[in-house]
Amino acid sequence: MTTTTTATTTGSTTTAATTKTAATTPSTATSTATAPRGLVAQLTRAQARFLTGGVLLGILGVASTLVQPQLVAHLIEAVGRKEPIALLVTLLAVLFVADAALSATQGCLIGRAGENIVRDARVLLSGRVLRADLSYLNTQRQGDVHTRLVGDTALMKIALTQSLAQILLNGLIVLGGVVMMALIDVWLLLVTVGCLGVASVASIGVARGLRRAALVNRADTGEFGADLQRVLAALPTVKAAGAEGREEDRLAARADTVRRSGNRVTVLNALFSPVLNVGLQASLAAVMGIGMARVATTSLSVAEFTAFTMYLFYLVSPLVLVFLALGTYQQGRAAVQRVDELAGIPQEDAPAPDGGSGTAPAPVPDASGRPAAASPAPDGGHPAVEFRDVGFGYGDRTVLDAVSFTVPRRGLTALVGVSGAGKTTVFQLIERFYRPGRGAVLLDGRDIAHLSTAEIRDGVGYVQQDSAAMRGTLRENIVYAAPDATEADIEEAVELAGLTHVVAALPDGLDTPLGDHGIGLSGGQRQRLCVARALLQKPAVILLDEATAHLDSEAEAALRDSLRRIARRCAVVAIAHRISTVVEADRIVVLDEGRVRAVGTHAQLVRDDALYGRLAAAQFADGARAGAAAEAAAGTPSGQPAVGVAG
Ligand SMILES: Nc1ncnc2c1ncn2[C@@H]1O[C@H](COP(=O)(O)OP(=O)(O)OP(=O)(O)O)[C@@H](O)[C@H]1O
């Protein structure tokens, strides 16, 4: 039996890449790796049943292979002695068939174990990536993560099952063959081992080089994948910038790098067989020469010489396969390492490390030095959101410094400030995408450092700045955070978000399919879709990051009206560049260079805060100019309040 469950890997067909840092790691990202160490080993152990079954059948196959030359020797002797041979011939035929059947069954079992390992690894890795700590995941290249999940898992399967089985079973054939040959003639065996030993040592050297080359090749392939993904994600920008040629050249250069390292893998792969063949040919020649001489001097019988030569021939193919499998295994080990690394990705729900943000500091003293009460809400409960002396930075760069403010349980709270002041970062801390380096963020009086991600996110609806929509129908997008929502709830959310007319105008209404990133809707419609999604979740707090940025003044006024209605039920926190969106807010928090500069109503801030006053004046002046221009063009007065963009 020769186990031939070969699977060729050229190195260039599977992909991987070394991890590259694409963005700054927040200095205060606190999740730790709760990696299932040696995940791949665990998954392999889970398939012990199939693997052991396969190996046992393989060992039976090896035994039947090794008996065959001995039977042939007996057959020769029986023919020489003119004895009946029918039984021997039948036995030999049975062994041939059994050998083939065992080989096929063993291949199936090992193959099944391999598929199970890949499935388990992909399911587990997908879950870990989905629950990964964003502050860490944002530093990884998406293309590389994809490559590890798709390409490396496939390569790992080959290494763990087929290659290992080949090494083991073919290794057993070689070992058994050597033992049988030793029983026939030790001197002839020593000659054979001498020739093969030199070739084997050379082959092992090639295998080591192959592993290194495979790692480089997969890193290069991962770089290509990451670049391709970057370009595909921004294809309209590439086209608008007329950068197709430049990007094509860049991809071509990457592809060429992959080709070069792939060539090295191919060369080393190709070197295996010839290096080994030289040894085999030398040993065959020596065995023939010396063996024939021994037969001539009758110190070796013809039957023994035939059996020895048969064993040598039986050895050739398994030996080559062992070394080829060693090469594949070396490539697969790199994949195993990369899969294990991805499995170790820090998870969101990892406990806050010592010295992190686990403990909520005492309420910040007010101007009189007395500790501020936790700003009780009008209904006497805790504020919906509270920032207590929060400090946070990306890398070494401080973005928020000693930020303290509260958000009442009802009403509209606005966050304003120039671009880069840290407004979106505040939202991301509320969602616990990042953890503060100092201070605490509280939801309904509870430090979110001690809450599960589900507890945090079930209570917070987040409409992001870039209005995330996904491929799928409009309905699927809207119910994404509340899959069990009723038709009445959906209708209400659609109405509150001002989407009713949009849905009515679509050919299939809510069941109209959208493309990637919500292609099929305008920017403003996508924004309203995200508002509807957040509303349907019925959270205690809704965070709106520039939810009116893409809306015209009519749609903005409608959404403002909706927000007023929503704010009667829950806390609404809105980041707005347009002061017009927040003039009616119950409280406005002005952020400046990562610090809370002032808190108040529009009227108070216009009166008391110079920065806010400037922002408002600039925007209303812009609006007045726009209004005057519109009046001049239309010949009618414009009563519409001005809008503009700060910063
Ligand atoms: N992932 C990140 N890595 C490193 N720096 C970041 C990251 N995200 C934001 N920053 C930096 O943090 C600062 C605050 O960003 P943030 O997005 O919170 O500002 P913002 O007030 O919401 O701005 P805008 O109004 O333009 O949206 C900016 O200087 C930005 O460059």
Q: Which helices and strands, and how do they pair?
A:
Blueprint: H1 39-46, H2 48-80, H3 86-130, H4 134-137, H5 142-184, H6 186-233, H7 235-240, H8 244-296, H9 302-343, E1 385-394, E2 397-407, E3 411-416, H10 423-430, E4 438-443, E5 446-447, H11 453-458, E6 460-463, E7 472-473, H12 474-478, H13 487-496, H14 500-505, E8 513-514, H15 523-536, E9 541-545, H16 553-567, E10 571-575, H17 579-582, E11 587-592, E12 595-600, H18 602-608, H19 610-634
Parallel strand pairs: 3-10, 3-11, 6-9, 9-10
Antiparallel strand pairs: 1-2, 1-4, 4-5, 7-8, 11-12
This protein binds adenosine-5'-triphosphate.
Keyphrases for this structure?
disordered C terminus; alpha/beta; disordered N terminus; ABC transporter transmembrane region fold; 647 residues; binds adenosine-5'-triphosphate; four-stranded antiparallel β-sheet; 19 helices; Rossmann fold
What does this structure look like?
Keywords: ATP-binding, Membrane, Nucleotide-binding, Transmembrane, Transmembrane helix. With 647 residues, the protein is an alpha/beta fold. The chain has 2 domains: 39-343, ABC transporter type 1, transmembrane domain (ABC transporter transmembrane region fold), CATH 1.20.1560; 409-421 and 452-613, P-loop containing nucleotide triphosphate hydrolases (Rossmann fold), CATH 3.40.50. Helices cover 59% and strands 10% of the residues. The chain has 19 helices and 12 strands. The strands form 3 sheets. It has a 6-stranded mixed β-sheet, with helices on both faces. Helix 2 (48-80) packs antiparallel against helix 3, helix 2 (48-80) runs parallel beside helix 5 and helix 6 runs antiparallel to helix 8. The longest helix is centred in the middle third of the chain and has 53 residues, at 244-296. Residues 2-36, 353-378 and 633-647 have low confidence and may be disordered. Adenosine-5'-triphosphate (ATP) binds at residues 23-24, 138, 394, 399, 417, 419-425.
